[in-house]
Design goal:
Shape: elongated
Distance between the termini: 14 Å
Strand content: under 5%
Number of helices: 7
């Protein structure tokens, strides 16, 4: 193979653009989270009238923000990496290690995460699951849907990262 196929480079570019747009939308979950927590703090400490919904709102919005932002973070190369050796390697070696890690660790793990999360989300939707830990019993099925959606977004972005690593590996091999 003399050159990395332009079609695959375009696929990676489209996936990256979608991750950027998704990150720009998902970050807006921070607004209701901040307003809800601010309201709770004011109600609790100024008026001695805590809410029954603030805890549920906080863990659902923060959890969704954290999970749904994972693909954007992967796009930005923001996940934790043990750089003891990695930062010293040449780009081609990094690309080879990345490709192996995506193939043998990332994709199988995310696929399992997706299947298990999807099964759990479907069950939650079928029974219209609600929280038993709060007096107002918020619905849990939308929150549980975030898990397979996150795994799917990570699988797609991981495919883009794999393609970019493959491109780097092939390009460095020609030099």
């Amino acid at each position: 193979m003399k050159q990395f196929p332009e079609t695959l480079a375009k696929v990676a570019s489209v996936i990256d653009a979608a991750a950027e747009k998704a990150g720009a939308v998902i970050c807006w979950l921070m607004v209701p989270l901040v307003f809800g927590l601010t309201y709770e703090v004011v109600a609790r400490y100024l008026f001695n009238a805590p809410t029954i919904w603030a805890y549920d709102l906080a863990y659902m919005l923060y959890g969704s923000l954290f999970m749904l932002g994972a693909a954007y973070t992967l796009r930005q190369d923001g996940h934790i990496r043990t750089d003891i050796f990695y930062y010293r390697w040449q780009d081609r070696t990094k690309a080879l290690v990345n490709m192996c890690c995506y193939l043998f660790l990332f994709f199988p793990g995310m696929l399992f995460f997706f299947i298990a999360g999807l099964d759990n989300a479907i069950h939650s939707w079928l029974i219209l699951e609600r929280s038993d830990y709060s007096p107002w019993r918020p619905p849990l099925y939308p929150f549980k849907t975030v898990v397979p959606l996150t795994a799917l977004m990570l699988l797609i972005q991981g495919f883009s990262e794999f393609l970019k690593s493959l491109k780097t590996f092939l390009a460095r091999g020609r030099q």
